């Protein structure tokens, strides 16, 4: 845990979960030395399996998102690890998503505790900001550009689901909701890519649970319709249970 603190992570990441995540991504078992560190490609579930197999720490399957959101996400933001280096266009919510220690971080950590460690650490920390910018530019390059009917441009994270969301906006909406105002667009890498709360509030809709939102919401003023569109690659067809969820979510609409 000391090394995570040394790398500048805040208190929220100074915990067993983060330490185990780092060790798994370095493939360091209890008897290994820092110089033995490697950089395997690992998904969240294999990381958790590593925790249990080599450190006897079992995390319940339903804590997978906690590992991803409260540790892995921060490691990515700090350029300590790289998401999907084998396929940068893979969606962040793909079950095949993998992560790998960033090469310069691997080189640094292999020298932990050796002579010259503090100097190398200072040099590494000076490069972190530029590394962040570099990887952010790479991620941005792969994003999917979408232009809303209003002319506003948004960019979706890469992947099949968002490719379909783009088609919904580009092809479905002009035909079935001409002149409609897009109020909400989901994004697999975050809660939403676009959210016009003002439109929904005017219609009496208060959104509290973004996780239950449909993929695209459009207000068709000509017919006073609120059109809810699901991209079927994310959840499948709108079954009775899902229909009830949407009815409850939009129950206040006028």
Strand and helix map with partners:
Elements: H1 2-6, H2 16-25, H3 44-55, H4 64-77, E1 81-83, E2 99-101, H5 103-110, H6 117-141, E3 144-147, E4 153-156, H7 160-176, E5 181-187, E6 190-195, H8 197-202, E7 216-220, E8 225-229, H9 232-235, H10 240-249
Antiparallel strand pairs: 1-2, 3-4, 5-6, 5-7, 7-8
Helix pairs in contact: 2-3
Characterize the structure shown.
This protein has helices spanning 2-6, 16-25, 44-55, 64-77, 103-110, 117-141, 160-176, 197-202, 232-235, 240-249, and strands at residues 81-83, 99-101, 144-147, 153-156, 181-187, 190-195, 216-220, 225-229. The mean pLDDT is 86. The strands form 3 sheets. A 4-stranded antiparallel beta sheet has the order 6-5-7-8. It has a two-stranded antiparallel ribbon with strand order 1-2. A two-stranded antiparallel ribbon has the order 3-4. It folds into 2 domains: 2-141, BsuBI/PstI restriction endonuclease, N-terminal domain (Arc Repressor Mutant, subunit A, Orthogonal Bundle); 144-249, Trna Endonuclease, Chain: A, domain 1. 44% of the residues lie in helices and 15% in strands. Helix 2 crosses helix 3 (44-55). By secondary structure, the protein is α+β, with helices and mostly antiparallel strands. A hairpin with a 4-residue loop joins strand 7 and strand 8 (225-229). The protein has 10 helices and 8 strands.
């Amino acid at each position: 845990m000391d090394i995570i603190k040394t790398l500048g992570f805040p208190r929220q990441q100074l915990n067993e979960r983060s330490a185990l995540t780092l060790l798994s991504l370095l493939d360091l078992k209890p008897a290994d030395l820092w110089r033995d560190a490697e950089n395997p490609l690992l998904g969240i579930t294999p990381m958790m399996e590593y925790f249990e197999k080599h450190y006897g720490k079992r995390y319940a399957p339903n804590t997978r998102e906690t590992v991803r959101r409260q540790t892995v996400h921060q490691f990515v933001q700090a350029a300590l690890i790289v998401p999907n280096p084998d396929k940068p266009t893979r969606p962040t919510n793909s079950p095949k998503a993998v992560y790998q220690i960033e090469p310069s971080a691997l080189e640094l950590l292999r020298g932990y505790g050796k002579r010259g460690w503090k100097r190398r650490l200072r040099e590494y920390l000076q490069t972190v900001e530029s590394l962040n910018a570099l990887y952010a530019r790479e991620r941005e390059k792969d994003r999917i550009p979408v232009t809303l009917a209003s002319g506003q441009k948004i960019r979706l994270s890469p992947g099949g689901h968002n490719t379909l969301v783009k088609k919904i906006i580009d092809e479905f909406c002009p035909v079935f909701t001409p002149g409609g105002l897009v109020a909400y667009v989901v994004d697999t890498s975050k809660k939403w890519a676009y959210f016009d709360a003002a439109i929904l509030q005017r219609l009496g809709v208060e959104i509290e649970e973004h996780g239950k939102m449909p993929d695209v919401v459009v207000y068709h003023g000509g017919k006073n319709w609120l059109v809810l569109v699901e991209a079927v690659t994310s959840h499948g067809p709108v079954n009775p249970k899902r229909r009830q969820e949407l009815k409850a979510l939009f129950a206040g609409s006028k």
